[in-house]
Amino acid sequence: MASDIWTVVGDEVGSLLHDLTTRRVGVSASEEALAQWIESFEFDEPESLDALTVRVSRMIREGIVHVTSPRYFGLFNPSVLEVGMVADALAAAYNPQLAVHSHAPVVAEMEQRVLQCLAGVLGLPPDGTHANFTTGGAEANHSAVLVALAQRYPDISRRGIASLGTTPRIYLSEEAHHSFVKVARMTGLGTSALRPVPTNEAFALDPFSLEDRIRRDLEEGGDPLLVVATVGTTACGAVDPLIEIADVARRFRTWLHVDAAWGGAAGFSPRLRPLLAGIERADSVTWDAHKWLSVPMGAGMFFTRHPDAVRRAFSISASYIPRSIARDDADGYTTTMQWSRRAIGLKVLMSVAHLGLSGYARLIDHQTDMGDRLRALLTGAGWETVNATPLPLVCFTHPRIADGELSTRDVLEFINARGRVWISDVKLKDRDPVLRACITSYRTEAADLRCLVDELERAVAARG
Ligand SMILES: *Cc1c(COP(=O)(O)O)cnc(C)c1O
User: Fold this and answer.
1) Quick one: which of 78, 161, 177, 385 has the most CB atoms within 10 Å?
2) In testing the pocket of ligand 1, which one of 186, 231, 262, 288 has its CB within 8 Å of the most ligand atoms?
3) Three-state secondary structure of the chain
4) For ligand 1, is residue 261 a contact (CB within 6 Å)?
5) Is the link from the previous residue into 298 a cis peptide, with omega within 30 of 0?
6) Closest ligand 1 atom to 139 CA
């Protein structure tokens, strides 16, 4: 019966959600058990779908870090909204092909509709903005550099980097995302094109150092192609000063890219929106839905106000796509890095439609409140916070860690072995590592924070 398997899947998801809080956050299976499970796939004989689903579900339950737990305080991996699971199931079932508009016109239009709405949430101009979904922030950042190159050097797609006669430079803070290292390699610019700019005491890019760096490069014959400003750095949630950076970018006619992979969600919240002031001057923006919008991976977004440069970077015609169905302005394969593309945007559209903008504002504000509360709880318990950001990401240490009596690694080993919560550590500039806790789940409540602080206290006490 076709319906039976969906009962099995439904029961699985139901029980996952039911005991999300009490479940061990970290991997619970031993390495031996994992190895045995993997070897158990011999692929010789067919296995019933029911049995396979139950078996694989158990392996996943015990063999992953549960990033959807309200007690996962790790990297920017969210608890997923149920609406996103439903949308992804529909996308898998219907398998709409987004490479060409005419194959899935209604889904292509849904994607554009929600992108237009989200461009508005960021404060980007509604007209003239090109937007598309990507697999994630890394692809969006890669797209930004390719489109900036196409804009600056109209002939580059034919003649290549070697023909430029100058060295394009990319400026970014020391805290910017490492995807730009890969981008520099993949674009052929090379990692020496990346010009790290020092940060201030809040770990935000210092605009004076940026200007300085650009001037020095110009004197040496380099070409300042692009400046990256980050809203919500991965390590400590720092927000680069967009307006000052936009001023520098304009002065040197440099493309301004804002990497708001996580922090873009500030746009939903009247309280946080001021952090995005200046983003409307960006040439391009990265924003991930699979981070703070709580949709399943992978769903990134790329926005730019240079649709012509997008076309120069990506447009192509292929003989196997009949002219009769081609729509150059709207076919995904002519405006993005991808060819075949799944309906990434369906889960984003359905999530925004289901929660509404007000629902997202509440979700973002709730997590922000939880971040403030965690900061207060930690300080009250004798911990020291070392970063200052309104976003719910707390970097902190303990006097006994600072004194060298125990290390962040000791704390993490203790906590992650117990498995009640999950956190990580991070190195900021040349300081010693500190602990890092991010509110990544809209389900996190005060009791979960108390559990985290309790675990931290135990970790310190365990060291006598
Ligand atoms: C996560 C992140 C990225 C990379 O995005 P993916 O979706 O993981 O590819 C880029 N920049 C920032 C600031 C991020 O936080």
Assistant:
1) 78
2) 288
3) CHHHHHHHHHHHHHHHHHCCCCCCCCCCCCHHHHHHHHHCCCCCCCCCHHHHHHHHHHHHHHHCCCCCCCCECCCCCCCCCHHHHHHHHHHHHHCCCCCCHHHCHHHHHHHHHHHHHHHHHHCCCCCCCEEEEECCHHHHHHHHHHHHHHHHCCCHHHHCHHHCCCEEEEEEECCCCCHHHHHHHHCCCCHHHEEEECECCCCCECHHHHHHHHHHHHHCCEEEEEEEEEECCCCCCCECCHHHHHHHHHHCCCEEEEECCCHHHHHHCCCCHHHHCCHHHCCEEEEECCCCCCCCCCCEEEEECCHHHHHHHHCCCCCCCCHHHCCCCCCHHHHCCCCCCCCHHHHHHHHHHHHHHHHHHHHHHHHHHHHHHHHHHHHHCCCEECCCCCCCEEEEECHHHHCCCCCHHHHHHHHHHHCCCECEEECCCCCCCEEEEECCCCCCCHHHHHHHHHHHHHHHHHCC
4) yes
5) yes
6) 9
Q: Which atom of ligand 1 is nearest to the CA of 232?
A: 13
**pLDDT surpassing 70 at residue 464:** no
Percentage of the chain beyond pLDDT 90 is 89
- 177 ligand 1 Cβ < 6 A: yes
Does the C-beta of 264 come closer than 6 Å to ligand 1? Answer: no
pLDDT in tens, 292-339: 999 999 999 999 999 999 999 998 877 777 666 777 678 899 999 999
Give the position, in ligand 1's atom list, of the atom nearest the Cα of 234: 15
Residue labelled with tokens 């207060």 = 376
Least confident of 14-18, 131-135, 428-432: 428-432
Q: Is 288 in the pocket of ligand 1 (CB under 6 A)?
A: yes
